[in-house]
Amino acid sequence: MKLGQQLAIEERRATVLRYFAEHPDATVRETADALGLSKSTVDRDFQAATQAITDRAREAWLGTIAARDEKLIGAMMPAALAGKAMSVQTILMAHDQLLKIFGLYAPTKTEQTVNLRVAAEQIAEQLGLDPGDVLAEAERIIAAGGS
Fold this sequence. Notes:
Radius of gyration: 29 Å
Low-confidence stretches: none
Largest sheet: none
Structural class: mainly alpha
Strand content: under 5%
Mean pLDDT: 84
Number of helices: 6
Oligomer: single chain
Order of helices and strands: HHHHHH
Number of domains: 2
Number of strands: 0
């Protein structure tokens, strides 16, 4: 998409938002008619514009939290380096929050409990096999350590 086209889209979205702000009781159809746009364009523009506002607000909020945590870490660092346990704990909690904010944590593994009998019955049904045979084979594989 060319820059001019992108600017035109952003201007149209701003116009749609402005119209809704100035005419809070207007329907999408009324807004579309007033602006000379299709109903789907107004709906799509409104959704995109409000999502962009939400994204910017979220980014600003995360930036504020990150800046606060960085100041906290800086203020606590001398005491932490002097061996003050509470300061070390505070810094670790701030670091932990920053890692979460910026999505730097790897997904955690979750454990699942599987009812082997139910799973064997479902597999047997799907494949047209005897449930007892499927269960016996599953138990044999588990006993052998997965091989």
